[in-house]
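Contributing new records

If you add data, match the layout below exactly. Sequence lines come first and carry their own label; structure lines follow with theirs. Keep one chain per record. Anything else will be rejected by the validation script.
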Amino acid sequence: MKQILNVLIFKFILVLPFQINAYKRVYPDNPLIRYTGRFDFSIPQNVRFDWPGVSIEAAFEGSCCAVMLKGYGEAFNIFIDGEFLKVLKTDSIVEQYELVSGLEDTIHTVSITKRYLIENVICEFGGFLIGDDKKLCQIAQIRPKYRIEFIGASSLNGFGNESSSISCESVFDSSNCYYSYGPLTGRALNAECVTIAATGKGVVRNWGVPFISSFHPFSSVFFRTLRNSEHPAWNHEQWIPHVVVVCLGTNDFSTRPYPDKNVFIYNYTAFLQQIRDLYPGVKIVCLTSDKQPVRSFVKEIVGNMKAEGIKDIYNVAYDPIPYHNRGCDWHPNIKAHEKISQKLVKTIEPLLKDIQ
């Protein structure tokens, strides 16, 4: 009984400040709220999302701002006026969180970005809470001209990239998609980017599966609005990228048994063709690590497609990552992600200049 009482008191203390009349709710369907990434708007007042790297932004009047959010244990980066403020860690009880208070009473911006993706967790955004006599404003910064979609697995997810060693107590606390090579490249090129990252997924065979193929490889989740739900399907006409970066295949060959080379090449090529069908005229960059045989296989795939007359496809292989640039479980840390991003920027920047 005492434990239950303590939980109720804890919840009361956290929620009470946002139930007083000094605050009003701004609902998720307010047109002044900017969303980047895949979101499910089926219920306008309760927007669902789960992909890593998605962002929710707004400009608000006043000195304080809170958020209505069911995070179910997920963590988020909070930026105020373009500066990182804190990591917001959610739980399964609290649904309202203070983001900032005590600011100068003027116009400010808030940005919430999802740090990681947890299996079987779908978050729900219920809107912002601001001063009762305040309102949202138009975000001064317009959306970037260019759009890049990044497709990958755990590294793109930011798996363990904030760890200083290959061993870490918590992968969750050490992972931050905001500093993975995808978002880093997007910001370097002043491009709007969307990350579709699924840890452990492969082209044919997922990580650790004791068979040469998997029932649900990466392609099974690519067409979803939500990673952790088959419905609703994503409408690819909602957001059409100029460039798509694909970094898949490492999981296929990380553990044995390896998939057959011909099967891998066929499925990888078929997935690239699906992307080309979804986004006619898109430029595709196939990114690989130094790991073999996937590095050679992807190079061969790109070469084959070019030989068939497909010009807008490119291959980038990043350099071996030294031990001191490794995070959790040998994944790249932020320094390594920065180096990968630099290689991508060199390839993508001239491609964007050709886009009107």
